[in-house]
Amino acid sequence: MSKSNPLFSAKSLKLFTEPLSEGNPVTVLVLGICSALAVTVKLEPAIVMGLSVTVVTGFASFIISMLRNTIPNRIRIIVQLVVVAALVIMVDEILKAYVYEVSKQLSVFVGLIITNCIIMGRIEAFALGNKPLPSLIDGLGNGAGYGLILVIVAFFRELLGSGTLFGIQVVPQSWYIANGGFYENNGLMILPPMALIVLGLIVWVHRGINKELIEK
Amino acid sequence: MENILSIFVKSIFVDNMIFAYFFGMCSFLAVSKSVKTAMGLGIAVVFVLLITVPVNYLINEYLLLPGALTWISPDFANVDLGFLSLIVFIAVIAWIVQVVEMAVEKFTPTLYNQLGIFLPLIAVNCAVMGASLFMKEREYATLAEATTFGFGSGIGWLLAIISIAAIREKMKYSHVPKALRGLGITFILTGLMAIAFMSFSGIKL
User: Fold this and answer.
1) B116 touches chain A (CB under 8 A)
2) Which residues of chain B fall short of a pLDDT of 50?
């Protein structure tokens, strides 16, 4: 890579935008689904989770990329885990200090960011072979791609399941059957299985648009 | 004893790692293409869970909890190392996976060849880390309870991956819409299976 590669070049932009759609870590690369789905009942925890993962992925890639020439190959997994775990502990403590309610809702899922495959995947696939700044951008982009999917899933689940967005009532109260209307919240949307089905439908739409992603 | 049995059944069916919490989805989706490989990974996960959960339980109980260090000296009664749990748990898991891998290679080379690449991958399987974190959060009272929980979670995971792999093998002969093929239909299938598993949640134990 040449030295004249400014931070805001077209190439950097592509590193950031590619994971948002055609290289999306969740719907295309199938990474990081583990900790994702249980936090998508409401929009707020989904956004907090997306931001946390973005921060951790970005900085983990950045740090590992700086260390990449000094880490012995045989013990690299454990070094990576330690760096990621240290970052996740910081995120966890910050969440507990400033957004305690959301941190309670996320419970063990913040800890599970450590084993989120997106982070390890990006470190192995990108950060170990690239300079720190592109790695940072790549990490942030992948975190954002993950967050984007979380927010889309959470949007539909909260809207259809609770009739709210960010906890604010969106569906008019007078529509509900209890108030003489015709509408009822779909309780199934709040249950965990619907996260998977919504995600399946997102994959369907996404691949319907980007035909080259269709599996043989 | 009753309690142990109830934890066992609960961790397999009601709190199934995959269908209730989606833990270990990455390897679940990647390795569930054929029953044979799914079986190999499933057994490895059971094995690792059976060892990591009790070890982490002991570490949590005697090193990390507030006041846990009193067995060394009463002066440590106010020490709370709880914030270290994440890093300690993941280190223990990575270490045990390594030890298990070496032990399996030495004593049962056949099993080692069958498990192949899956053993090292388990270190980053969320189901393993998740079980340790749940063990901490649910505050199991004895070592036996924690061990049972770890074993039951592993069996639940094995059950889930084998059943999905069996369905996916049959799906090869079905006419799935083009864009849904592969990943999309697997998500929806897992969702439907999860709905079926929810019927267990009504069971009082």
Assistant:
1) no
2) none
Residues A39-66: tens digit of each pLDDT:
787 888 888 888 888 898 899 888 888 8
For residue B43, being part of any structural domain is answered with: yes
| CA separation, residue B150 to residues A46, A100, B161 (Å) | 28, 29, 17
**Cα-only R_g, chain A:** 19
In a domain, B42, yes or no: yes
- Residue B95: inside a domain, yes or no? yes
> Are residues B190 and A196, on separate chains, in Cβ contact within 8 Å?
yes
Contacts of A192 in chain B (CB under 8 A): 19-22, 194
Is position B205 within any domain?
no
Domains identified in chain B, total number: 1
pTM of the predicted model as reported, rounded to 2 decimal places = 0.79
Task: Round to whole Å and give the CA distance between A36 and B24.
Answer: 11
Determine the residue of chain B that is closest to A203 in CA distance.
B184
Q: Is B143 on the interface with A (CB under 8 A)?
A: no
**Whole-angstrom distance, CA of residue B162 vs CA of residue B153:** 14
Domain housing B32: 2-200
From the list A30, A37, A192, which residue is nearest B183 (CB)? A30
| Distance in angstroms (rounded) separating the CA atoms of residues A2 and A62 | 19
Q: Where are the domains of chain A?
A: 25-213
> Nearest-CA distance from A198 to chain B in Å?
8
Contact B171, B187 (CB under 8 A): no
Q: Do A77 and B22 touch (CB under 8 A)?
A: no
Is A27:A33 a contact under the CB 8 Å cutoff? no
Range A87-109 average pLDDT? 83
Between CA A161 and CA A188 the distance in angstroms is 7
Q: Could you give the CA distance from residue B18 to residue B127 in angstroms, rounded to a whole number?
A: 8
Establish if B183 touches chain A: CB-CB under 8 angstroms: yes
Measured CA to CA, the distance from residue A14 to residue A2 in angstroms comes to: 17
Interface of B with A in 8-27 (CB under 8 A): 19-26
Please tell me the distance in Å from B98's CA to the nearest CA on chain A.
Answer: 11
